[in-house]
Sequence to fold (385 residues):
Amino acid sequence: MIAAWDVASSVKPGVHLNHVAPGASQADPTAVDVSAIGGGVNLLITGTDTRTGQGAAFSSNADLTSSSGAGHNDVTMLLHISQNHQSVSVISFPRDLMIAVPACAHPDGGTYASSSRVILNSTLARGGLSCVVLSIEKLTGLQIPFAAQISFAGVTAMSDAVGGVTVCVASPINDLYTNPPLHLAAGEHTIVGGEALSFLRSRHGVGDGSDLGRISNQQVFLGALARKVEGGGMLANPITLFSLAKAATNNMILSDTLTDPITLVQIALALKDTGLENMIFLQYPTVVDPSDVNRVVPEKAGAGILNAALVADALLRLSGAPGRAAVGSATASPSPVASASAMSTPNVPPASASPTTAPNSPADALFPSTIIGQSTAQQTCSKGS
Fold:
């Protein structure tokens, strides 16, 4: 376990999530037999836009004035792995989502009172990583014991660690607002480092220029990354997994439940036998905020369906089209076809109902077309603005 101890030596102190017992869910660092984590996983990943400590490229007065310190959680994603590891979903929450938030302890002391209306991307500055977790728990009804925070430099390092990601671009992307500026012609591109960061952050170069367009662009990237990891056998190679874990521990702020490298590898191993068709990326359902056209609020029906399916640990399936900045490629797998009645509500049995599936097998939840995203098996392309 030399690789494990090498990773452990690079681990920084973790952030304590106020609602989780210290050290909960950590693996035994002396264990030799590394296997998939037992049970399900809820792991929140937040990407901060802080310019603090991100190198010379982001050190101008304008950059630091735009965002410094903790920064804003411009990316908030939830990784949900089912109890039996047969279903994996990544839910993206728009940064401009207006939500109710609980009281949050500020890392520097004091407490922010609960509020019925707060923009999601302010929760990191409001109360640190723990506050983002508490806010998503309140929104979804899930318990989230794991969390990680990644910065610009971390995204660059992680893309380097996997050797770049090959993405499909349906129409040219040109965005002068990213750093570095992004220019991609139509076709396939293997992006790495700063170019990968700009692809993930681009708004003006994709779709309708909105954050919702950027989310689907990120799903194109994540789907391609998942196919590379699965197709390249990375999940079956412990050395590769520990290399990726080291990139994470070096470049991310982790909850103290994740600072043991064994736990990171065990979570990765839980994905090994899921199958690409059962790994989906989706956008939390929203509608335009009636009080502010530049904000969004949860779409009650769709959000209720999604929350119930997650809490019920259902096998999640999509029936709708990809997001607004993604289109299916020539090799894309067709989306599941369902009748209107089947799409009206997921097949999530009530708690008192007799099980209709094999033991430890999740119920099947087919989402209405208003919940958009893609499965990892479905290859999509990013489209320019």
Observations:
- The domain at 2-382 is CATH 3.40.630.190 (Aminopeptidase).
- Residues 129 and 149 are 7 Å apart (CA to CA).
- The chain has one domain: 2-382.
